[in-house]
Amino acid sequence: MTDSAKTTENDPKDGLHSKEISIVIPVYNEEGIITSSVEDLVTALEGMEWSYEIILSENGSRDATVALAKNLSERFPKVRYLSLGEPNYGKALRLGILEARGKFVLCDEIDLCDTKFYRNAMALLRQDEADMVIGSKLLAGAQDERGWFRNSASKVLNNMLRMLVGFEGTDTHGLKAFRRDRLLRVVESCLVDKDLFTSELVIRAERAKELRIKEIPLQVVEKRQPSINLWKRVPNVLRNMARLVWIFRIRGE
C-alpha cells in the first residue's frame, strides 16, 4: 500500500482474513449514491450467503464520500474503505486488489453493483472454467443503456486498443472477476493508471497464454452522470494509450 493511502482495519475476529470473495469498488465524489448502493449490495449479498468483504477504494473525493465510506465501514463489519488521497481510478482499483483478502476478486462500479454478474462469473471461477471473467458491454447479448455518447466512447476506445496494441476481446472496461493468486503478478506488472489501468490489466492477462479469459454480456443502466466529465478524461487516455503502445509494441512486453 502506498504511504499516502489510509485503510480501516476491522476486528480480526470478524473473519475478514478468510473471506472467499473480495469486492473492490473505486469511488470518487459519490456522496449521492454510495450509502444506498452499499446498503442494497450488502442486503443482496447476505441473501446469497457468500463469505465476502467489500472494499471501497476512495480516491481524492472533494465531497462527503470519505465520511460516508467511513460510516459504512462502521455500520457493516464486512465493509472496509481505503483512502488514496488523489483522484486516480486505476491506482485506486490496483490498491484495492492488492489489499484484498479473498481468494476471488470482483471489480465493480458503485453505480452498478451487478450481483447477476457476480453469480455468473463466480460460477465459472468456482468450476475452474476460467481464471478471469470480463463483463462486456459490447459482446453479443449485452445491453448498454448508458446513452449514445458513452456507448460510442467505449466502442472508440476498444477499437483503438485493437488497432494499436492488439487487444483481442470486446471490452476492457467492463466488470471483472478473477482468481487473485493467478492474476496478482499481472496486476503488479501494470505500469499505467487512471482510465487505462484496466485495459493494460486485460491485455497483459491475454498475453499470459496460460490464463483462461472468458467474456460474458452485461446489462448496464446509467444511474447517474459520470463523476468525471468524459471530455476531461481524453488527455489522460491519449497519454496512457501512447504508453501502452510503447509497452506492448516497442518494448514488446
Folded structure, characterized:
This protein has 253 residues and is α/β, with parallel strands linked by helices. The protein has one domain (6-250): Spore Coat Polysaccharide Biosynthesis Protein SpsA, Chain A. The chain is 43% helix and 18% strand. It has an 8-stranded mixed beta sheet, sandwiched between helices. The chain has a two-stranded parallel sheet with strand order 7-10. Helix 1 (34-48) runs parallel beside helix 2 (65-75) and helix 5 (148-165) runs parallel beside helix 8. The longest helix is centred in the last third of the chain and has 21 residues, at 230-250. The two termini are 25 Å apart. The model is unreliable at 9-16 (pLDDT under 50).
Provide the low-confidence segments as ranges: 9-16
Q: Which strand order does the major sheet show? A: 1-4-3-2-5-8-6-9
Percentage of residues assigned to helices = 40-55%
The CATH architecture comes to: Alpha-Beta Complex
Shape: globular
Largest sheet: 8 strands, mixed
Compute the separation of the termini in Å: 25 Å
State the order of secondary-structure elements, H for helix, E for strand: EEHEHEHEHEEHEHHEEH
Rg, Å, rounded = 17 Å
- The count of β-strands is 10
CATH fold field value: Spore Coat Polysaccharide Biosynthesis Protein SpsA, Chain A
Q: Kindly estimate the percentage of residues that lie in beta strands according to DSSP.
A: 15-25%
CATH class: Alpha Beta
What is the count of DSSP helices, taking H or I runs of 4+ residues?
8
Instruction: Give the tally of structural domains.
Output: 1
Could you state the CATH homologous superfamily?
Answer: Spore Coat Polysaccharide Biosynthesis Protein SpsA, Chain A
Q: What oligomeric assembly is this protein in?
A: single chain
